[in-house]
Amino acid sequence: MTFVLIVDDDPAIRTLLADMFSEEGYRVGTACNGVEALERVRGRPPDAIVLDLMMPTLGGMGFLDACRRESLCREVPVMVVSAEYALVDEMPALKTAGVQAVLGKPFDVAEVLEFVEQHAPRAAHGRND
């Protein structure tokens, strides 16, 4: 089953996205900061990551840097979903870190689902593994 990791310090957003992906048949993991997300990645590499940038302890860019050094996370598709309005200024760094898509908050949940379906389709990974 395709595994999506949601990394956001806002519990309402984590719950919203986790519920949506679960209802669509994805396996979901959540983390409230980059340190917790790295633990999740080391426990089971995700097929896709939905990532906030502004988080306590270890923010999104720090997580991406550490995650990309992990052999199990190097090629995982990442979508940034952030209220950080300077995302245009961050785009070169995000692209260098391998981010495939960026959405500002508030966001359309259908766009997040579409990203994961495009980059980590359930059919490619089976629905019952």
Gist of the model:
With 129 residues, the chain is of the alpha/beta class.
Largest sheet: 5 strands, parallel
With helices defined by DSSP (H or I, 4 residues minimum), what is the helix count?
A: 6
Q: How helix-rich are the residues, as a percent range?
A: 40-55%
Strand content: 15-25%
Q: What's the CATH architecture name?
A: 3-Layer(aba) Sandwich
**CATH homologous superfamily identity:** Response regulator
Uncertain regions spanning at least 5 consecutive residues: 123-129
- When the domains are counted, the total is 1
Q: How many beta-strand runs?
A: 5
Highlighted features:
single chain; 129 residues; Rossmann fold; disordered C terminus
Structure description:
- This protein is α/β, with parallel strands linked by helices.
- The chain has a single domain, classed as Response regulator (Rossmann fold), CATH 3.40.50.
- Helix content is 45%, strand content 19%.
- It has six helices and five strands, in the order βαβαβαβαβαα.
- A five-stranded parallel β-sheet has the order 2-1-3-4-5, with helices on both faces.
- Strand 1 (3-7), helix 1 and strand 2 (27-31) form a beta-alpha-beta unit.
- Helix 2 runs parallel beside helix 3 (60-69).
- The protein is globular.
- It starts with a strand and ends with a helix.
- Residues 123-129 have low confidence and may be disordered.
